[in-house]
Amino acid sequence: MSTEREIESTQGTQQSPVYDEPEHVTQQVVLNEKASMDASFDKENTVTADGEEPTFAEKTSLRHVAENLPLSAWLVAIVELCERFTYYGMSGLFQNYIQRPLDGSQGRGALGMDHQGATGLTTFFQFWCYVTPILGAVIADQYLGKYKTIVLFCIVYMVGLLILVCTSIPGALENGAGLGGFIVAILIIGLGTGGIKSNVAPLIADQYKRKKMAIKTIKNGERVVIDPALTIQRIYMIFYGCINVGSLSLLATPYMEKYIGFWSAYLLCLCMFMVGTLVVTLGRKFYVVRPPQGSIITDAFRALFIMIKNRDMDAPKPSWQTERHGSSSVKWDDHFIDELKRALVACRVFAFYPVYWVVYGQFSSNFVTQAGQMQTHGIPNDLMQNFDPIAVIVFIPVLESCVYPILRRLKINFRPITRISFGFVVASLAMMYAAIVQHLIYSAGPCYGNPLCDASVVDGTAYGNNVHIAIQTPAYVFIGVSEIFASVSGLEYAYTKAPPSMKSFVQSMYLLTNAFGSAIAEALTPAAFDPAIMWMFVGLACASFLAGLIFFAIFRHLNAQEDEMNALDAEDYMPEAPVVEERRASHAQ
What we know:
Growth Hormone, Chain: A, disordered N terminus, 24 helices
């Protein structure tokens, strides 16, 4: 089975890995060019910075630091920024687009499907966008590789956007093309989103090569430990920061919706997505691109079947089978099974995430409707969503530059499991605050428990109850802060715990939890009416808080195993002879 494995030196020295690099350097993996291959490995995956690897005592006593990101990682981040600009700038308008009628009696609208219909379709779109990453992951890991898969699904995405733009122009809406065009568009866009999302997150981390800790002396003479795990954490913090910079498209698109029309906002999103597609294609030579690994997903499921059949996690190992049966017929090695077991640990951790995503999804659906039930003072109700990414953009540098370094200097390890648990608790605060705001709305006139009633209509337009829209801000801020801990740590965990050949697939498993969250939210749609929605917010607050506590109680022991599990990627292992011959033949062509 083809995986990212190392080929043993003919002289019995330290093994050297074979990495499938971009096409212009693929000659380095040919076996008869060993010297060139070793030189490339020393340059790209240097074990140490000062010529020495840290001892156990140094690992525990010296300060751990992260490295800077390579240029190619920044390019991938820009691509994600453009895609998220499109996704949020477009989907953030869906609630109004679907809920409000075309006649403008409740502000600009299109389809007129009321609150529950809008929440249902918006939630379905979120669900669909996080189911399709499985398809993108299988195509990337088994057939095309991450880069080609991203390019392919960029084209699919643009087709969906074009349909959305064309069917949202006034003439198309007046002739009844709006609903059909919208459904077709979100199906195609969701497919494109899935193919990109499952691959762009692991692709950015692939740009960083170091696998082992190293000693480095910084400018002030202090000896520190370069920690790859901290660099991966930094990569995903910056990656998530770019996501939220992109999502600030909601500063522009609600005003375009209000003063020009939905079609203009969707057109802006299409143009921005085209910019991202150009970056990903024109920057091709800068990326570290790993090839697909053949039947890796099939082999993983086959290994899982053997585990279940024998009720032993080590049963698929060749050594286990040889010991008990005298021979082994599998084509993988023991190291692959160790990696697969580590991936299963990550998937167990992800099991709690649907609860978090139900809470997170409220900011683009029910929070938008809630904002429309208050006095907006000329502010579009779907503009308030921007306080979520603004909170992320503000707090990420604070955490990365101040809080986390201080904790490391104090030898306080804020491990992923702890960060995720904390994120769940902060998310519960967002829901509790939203419930309080909803109570204030129901306590204010003129409509009290029935916002937007006939008593609120002035000059043909319904206005919200006498509560200022700005009071909703902390709910979005709490959601944003929770993302930094729960969502960013989830991305990090999905990458670091996945086998090298299954990065996209494990990432898709993480994203799938978002789909499960959307499915739960879809089931809660019947409760999205006044005044029941206030109690739905209370229930979600309790669920998120309890999930965070239970999650920490169950998985806190994994914090102690973090370094050990991350070290698996740095271990040396040898591919089977058929793989070596296959690679030699492919590169010779």
